[in-house]
């Protein structure tokens, strides 16, 4: 959960920073195109995550939590994959790999738990 929160914080800050006007000082056209591609990838992942989290609520806190956390965790996985594809820092890559592994385990648990509730 800690990794998901960190990823969410990093992810939500990226578009604001990119739009601040400070993201391209001294950048070449090729570098700017790379920045734009990364920003677009993060924005697409965030949009998908937020759409997928917009679930009909049941009033059952356990079920609603599980159903909402699956797309939330998938969003963290998608952001981590963007970092792996475009990032350069080895520590961030390692964190992204750890996030993917942890979030995939949690998604599997949540899906299993939900399946048991439906019986």
From TrEMBL:
Domain of life according to the entry: Bacteria
Q: Name one Pfam family in it.
A: DUF305
* Family annotation (InterPro entries): DUF305_CopM-like, Ferritin-like, Ferritin-like_SF
| Keyword annotations of the record | Signal
Q: Which residues form a coiled coil?
A: none
Q: DUF305 domain: which residues?
A: 62-116
Which SUPFAM superfamilies does the UniProt entry name for this protein?
Ferritin-like
Residue span of the signal peptide, if any?
Answer: 1-18
User: Protein name, please?
Assistant: DUF305 domain-containing protein
Native organism is Oceanibaculum pacificum
Upper classification of the source organism reads: Bacteria, Pseudomonadati, Pseudomonadota, Alphaproteobacteria, Rhodospirillales
